């Protein structure tokens, strides 16, 4: 049964390819490099602007979570409070810089550009920023506790 479906699939693909090659010679419209480059530029701008903006938003959420945790730990006199607040400050600065293209686009066009079929996954951004927070926190604790 599987082999028969595979044969049918390859037959349909072959027919579509044959039809496409038959129509190739009848096109009278020449290739337009400027239009192609403009389309690529718009797609790159849309995807980059969306991804960077949403990455920055998720990064700010993670940074504020770490900052609130650090604030409470600092007032409870734990040693982890100060490094967490420093990591929060650093992440907020980086995320604010990353969000600039999206904020400019939101201010001028009142919406982010279309990203086409690009899919933005929140869990990926949360894991990404969490891994960065763990690394920065470890570095900050290492610097604060074991000064050489």
Discrete helix count: 5
The Cα radius of gyration reads 25 Å
Mean pLDDT: 81
Strand and helix order: HHHHH
Structural class: mainly alpha
| Alpha carbon gap, first and last residue | 70 Å
The global form is elongated
Largest sheet: none
The tally of beta strands, per DSSP, is: 0
* Proportion of residues in helical segments: over 70%
Quote the beta fraction. under 5%
Low-confidence stretches: 1-20
Description:
The protein is mostly helical and 148 residues long. It has a domain at 49-148. The protein is built from 5 helices and no strands. Helix 2 (33-75) runs antiparallel to helix 3 (81-98) and helix 2 (33-75) crosses helix 5. It starts with a helix and ends with a helix. 15% of the residues are buried.
Detail the topology: elements first, then pairings.
Layout: H1 2-22, H2 33-75, H3 81-98, H4 100-109, H5 122-145
Question: Could you write a compact summary of the structure shown?
Answer:
The protein is an all-alpha fold. It has five helices and no strands.
Descriptive labels:
single chain, 148 residues, mainly alpha
């Amino acid at each position: 049964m599987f082999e028969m479906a595979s044969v049918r699939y390859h037959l349909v693909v072959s027919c579509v390819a044959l039809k496409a090659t038959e129509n190739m010679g009848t096109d009278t419209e020449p290739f337009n490099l400027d239009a192609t480059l403009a389309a690529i530029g718009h797609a790159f701008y849309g995807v980059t602007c969306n991804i960077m903006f949403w990455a920055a938003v998720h990064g700010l959420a993670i940074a504020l979570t770490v900052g609130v945790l650090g604030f409470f730990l600092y007032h409870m006199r734990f040693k982890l409070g100060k490094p967490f607040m420093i990591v929060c400050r650093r992440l907020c600065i980086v995320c604010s810089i990353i969000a600039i293209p999206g904020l400019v686009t939101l201010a001028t066009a009142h919406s982010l550009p279309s990203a086409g079929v690009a899919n933005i996954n929140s869990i990926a951004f949360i894991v990404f920023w969490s891994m960065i927070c763990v690394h920065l926190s470890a570095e900050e604790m290492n610097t604060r506790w074991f000064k050489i």
